[in-house]
Amino acid sequence: VGHSFGGVTLMRFLETHPGVAKGAAFLCSVPPSGNGPMTMRFLKTRPIASLKIVAGFVAKLACSSESLCRELFFGDTVADPAKLRGYMARFTDDSKVGLDLRALAPCLPSLSADADGTALWRKGPFVDPVFVLGAEDDYLVDEEGVAETALYLLGSKEKYTMLQNTPHDVMLGSRWQVAADELSKWLVSVVAQNAPTSS
């Protein structure tokens, strides 16, 4: 399971380690083209949001500003200030190791896609199951980004699940059960599809 930048990392892992995973789920994943095209979209359509995202990530203010952290990641799904501060403390620990976006650019998954945007390594008769999920209230990954991930992994911009009233961190706020239920339904369907048939 890959979430946010973990999703784009998982795409690269699956490409470079074929056959290792039996399936993969992508939750609010950064799309295969990285966050660059999304940032440009936000600059045109949501300039204030772009500034807040830069402040939260580049200046790391999401580690110190409760209001910014809540807006970027949780919306109103984390009502308890103490719980929010606990997550912020973890963000602070995580941010000690930065993500080098310039180093990521030359090896973005989208570079291994065909002209239509589908992963070349996903083509063929033996394709492991993939689940793509986005969130309607995601401040960081827009629906166009979710559709791009679905196209890259599943060959269609329509093959994804979009959660309503749910922010970016689908697994930490009060809506975590909704995301877990969707993931569970997908897993059950995969097991059913791969169950041996009686002769």
Could you explain the architecture of this structure?
The chain is α/β, with parallel strands linked by helices. It is built from eight helices and four strands. It has a four-stranded parallel β-sheet with strand order 1-2-3-4, sandwiched between helices. α7 (143-154) links the parallel β3 (130-135) and β4. α2 (36-45) packs across α3 (47-57). The chain is globular.
Number of DSSP E strands: 4
Please outline the major beta sheet. Answer: 4 strands, parallel
Measured between the Cα atoms of the first and last residue, the distance is: 34 Å
How many helical stretches? 8
Strand percentage:
5-15%
Radius of gyration: 17 Å
Look at the structure and give the mean pLDDT. 91
Q: Describe the global form.
A: globular
Q: In terms of structural class, how would the helical and strand content be classed?
A: alpha/beta
Helical content (DSSP H or I, runs of 4+): 40-55%
Give start-end ranges of low-pLDDT stretches: none
Order of helices and strands: EHEHHHHHEHEH
Biggest sheet strand order reads 1-2-3-4
Element layout with pairings:
Blueprint: E1 2-3, H1 5-16, E2 24-27, H2 36-45, H3 47-57, H4 66-74, H5 81-94, H6 101-104, E3 130-135, H7 143-154, E4 161-163, H8 176-194
Parallel strand pairs: 1-2, 2-3, 3-4
List keywords for this structure.
199 residues; alpha/beta; 8 helices; 8% strand
